[in-house]
Design brief:
The protein is of the alpha+beta class. 41% of the residues lie in helices and 7% in strands.
Length: 323
């Protein structure tokens, strides 16, 4: 029997034949009878018996006199001091220990959330760059590449070529969220490809400060004739086009170091189909053993279309002979 049924039985609200069953149980089961008696007694205490109680004589006059006396007496600062200090130094130390322990527990989780947020931001940036490259590819036979008279331009200026074509308007996508803002992002404007390339020769220090975004570019590959050229607008297979910048010592042939953008844990890579994929090492396919070096272990354009090489922003489209 549940509590609601016991309450109905004690109030006399239970219908037959269940009421008769419980009455019979009360006659045969002393424990049940005692429980039913306690419930009825408790309910009886709640019944309004009609009695009223008068307050003590003169209570209102004594109350008013006490209030008037309190108002007339000046209060000192001691009246505001609590009788007992609510916290002792020991209590404060315990509370501080609990707070610090909770903070130390939460910090790793907060750091992981921040890393996941930055990782998602990096993927978004590369996807936006991929959208700009796809628009460019619909109007040109190849991905961004400098004219012949500026073949020594740095590969990072692919962004300026996209910007000149009106395909890259949001300059913030050139920054990986892990590395802060570059100068071009902070200023919100970008000069033309020719102006920036001329700045490389006239003011190298200012040029280096300006061209400091966080993503490297696949400047193309060497044809069968030996001529260097850009990636075709519609490559026959999946090719890495843009990725997190290479480590500073990539030219030394050290293959166990990833991009510094994500603390060395790996790199995001934008492919020619517009997809962005995470790689925990620099090997991106059986035919491409190193994202940042060609199959001859050089920081040069690839030896063939399948040999994708993402160059640093400060390395020319044609590669660097001293690296």
């Amino acid at each position: 029997m549940n509590s609601e049924e016991m309450l109905d039985f004690a109030l006399g609200q239970l219908d037959d034949p269940r009421r008769r069953e419980l009455e019979e149980a009360g006659r045969t089961d002393p424990e049940f009878a005692a429980k039913a008696h306690r419930v009825r007694h408790a309910l009886h205490q709640l019944v309004d018996d009609g009695y009223t109680f008068n307050p003590p004589a003169g209570l209102s006059h004594r109350t008013l006199a006490l209030v008037a006396h309190s108002r007339g007496r000046g209060r000192s600062i001691l009246d505001y001091v609590p009788v007992q200090v609510p916290f002792r130094w020991a209590d404060f130390a315990v509370a501080a220990s609990i707070f610090i322990a909770g903070l130390l527990t939460l910090m790793p989780a907060i750091q992981r959330s921040r890393e996941r947020m930055n990782q998602a931001g990096c993927v978004f940036n590369l996807a936006q760059i991929g959208s700009s490259l796809a628009q460019y590819a619909t109007l040109h036979p190849s991905y961004p590449y400098p004219p012949n008279d500026r073949a020594d331009a740095h590969s990072g200026l692919f962004a300026a070529i996209l910007h000149d074509a009106g395909m890259l308007t949001d300059l913030s996508v050139l920054d990986c969220p892990c590395n802060g803002k570059c100068a071009v992002h902070a200023s919100g404007r970008m000069d033309s490809f020719e102006q920036i390339d001329d700045l490389r020769k006239s003011d190298p220090a200012q040029y280096q400060k300006l061209v400091s975004w966080d993503y490297g570019y696949n400047a193309g590959y060497r044809r069968g004739s030996g001529r260097l050229g850009p990636l075709e607008a519609r490559p026959a297979s999946l090719i890495a086009v843009v990725a997190d910048q290479p480590p500073q010592d990539a030219h030394l042939g050290v293959i166990d170091r990833n991009s510094p953008n994500h603390g060395g844990s790996g790199q995001n890579v934008l492919y020619s189909d517009g997809g962005v994929r995470w790689h925990s090492n620099r090997r991106i396919s059986p035919n491409d053993l190193d994202l940042y070096l060609n199959n001859a272990r050089q920081m040069q354009p690839g030896l063939n279309e399948h040999d994708a090489v993402v160059l640093p922003v400060m390395v020319p489209f044609v590669g660097s002979d001293n690296r």
